[in-house]
Amino acid sequence: MTGTASSESQGDLLERYTRSLITVFGTPQLVLERGDGAWVWDTDGKRYLDLVGGVAVNSLGHNHPALVAAVSKQVAEMAHISNFYTSRAQIELAERILEIAQAPEGSGVFFGNSGAEAIEAAIKLARRTGRTGIVAAEGAFHGRTTGALALTHKAAYREPFAPLIPEVSHVPYNDIEALRAVVTEETSAVFLEPVQGEAGAIPADPAYLRAAREITAAVGALLFIDEVQTGIGRTGDWFGFQASGIVPDAITLAKGLGGGLPIGALVTFGPEVTGLLTAGQHGSTFGGNPLVAAAGLSVLTSIESDGLLRHVSDMGEHLATAVGSLGHSEIEGVRGRGLLRAIVLRSEISAAVAAAAREAGFLVNPVSPNAIRLIPPLVVSREELDLFIAALPGLIATAKESSS
Ligand SMILES: *Cc1c(COP(=O)(O)O)cnc(C)c1O
């Protein structure tokens, strides 16, 4: 069973972790050492099927040969140059992103290093309208930096850091009339996720996004779609908003774009919105450096050449159907889109199910007390998903035993 097990145990390493890191993440569950495709190994050599995928980041899985080759080549040429200069990789990545987003002439890309930074850029863009109100949804997650945190809904994340930026309102998600009631000529921008990932893979009704487009356009407010988790093929389309047929004013990207390398982006649609941020008004030292840009290009190229959009749709459907046909009394259903899914349970045992899963060699995310989120690499195979689905009834049984 063991691979390249080191002499130091997981427990010893985690002990060192707690002595040396600020434990905002609590104590991590495992010390991982390597990965391949949808699989990872811990330092004891134990193998896990990775259905968390670095929280929707490892789009091509671990150790993908195209990503490894692209990043290795780029790091050997040059990794970083600052934004006083640009690189062919950065320009090509921006062009490719605009193409797959079907962005009109005059659109543009700003590169940062994370989802929160993409949101920060979007907040600054919104401020440039001269208006100050921002509307976001209940259940929304937009990041942890102080600007983005004001848009994130969860009180436990926000309250220790109050006061945050003012004039942010949260409205019930998927409620058209609530949105209409709060968006006014003082609203600079409305921020919405096409699927609320951190809230447990709750999809927006396409009619809701279309109504949001009309409501914002009617008062001259901007519509920003946060694609940090849903973008780059996660839903089976390049971007989550595309299924609704709307044209947003901007989208934010990060997680899946770099395939594991840290990159975020704000994409503005059309010359008017793009022109709101001018030279000197924003910046980033690392943003879009050649190394991460090469990674992003490699991810986009592989998604296309490996037919992954279709694969994601198929695997997402398969997962929902196969879990449904277990006919398990404890499972209420599967929600989400593509490979951003949550198995909804009838009782609050998701943490115990995730613990049983880990023991059995599966990594899953108990995103809320009664929901297990599955956000595997886009390359995960049907056979790999079936291993988990077949194990699920046993995992639920173990969880029920341990929590009774
Ligand atoms: C993860 C996430 C963010 C924040 O991204 P970070 O890279 O963690 O800063 C923002 N928005 C959404 C929708 C996310 O899922």
Automatic annotation (TrEMBL):
Enzyme Commission code(s) on record: 2.6.1.11
UniProt xrefs under Pfam families: Aminotran_3
Pathway given in the UniProt record: Amino-acid biosynthesis; L-arginine biosynthesis; N(2)-acetyl-L-ornithine from L-glutamate: step 4/4
Localization terms from the record: Cytoplasm
Record-linked InterPro entries: AcOrn/SuccOrn_fam, Aminotrans_3, Aminotrans_3_PPA_site, Class-III_PLP-dep_AT, PyrdxlP-dep_Trfase, PyrdxlP-dep_Trfase_major, PyrdxlP-dep_Trfase_small
Entry-linked PANTHER family: ACETYLORNITHINE AMINOTRANSFERASE, MITOCHONDRIAL, AMINOTRANSFERASE CLASS III
Protein name stated in the entry: Acetylornithine aminotransferase
Organism encoding this protein: Knoellia subterranea KCTC 19937
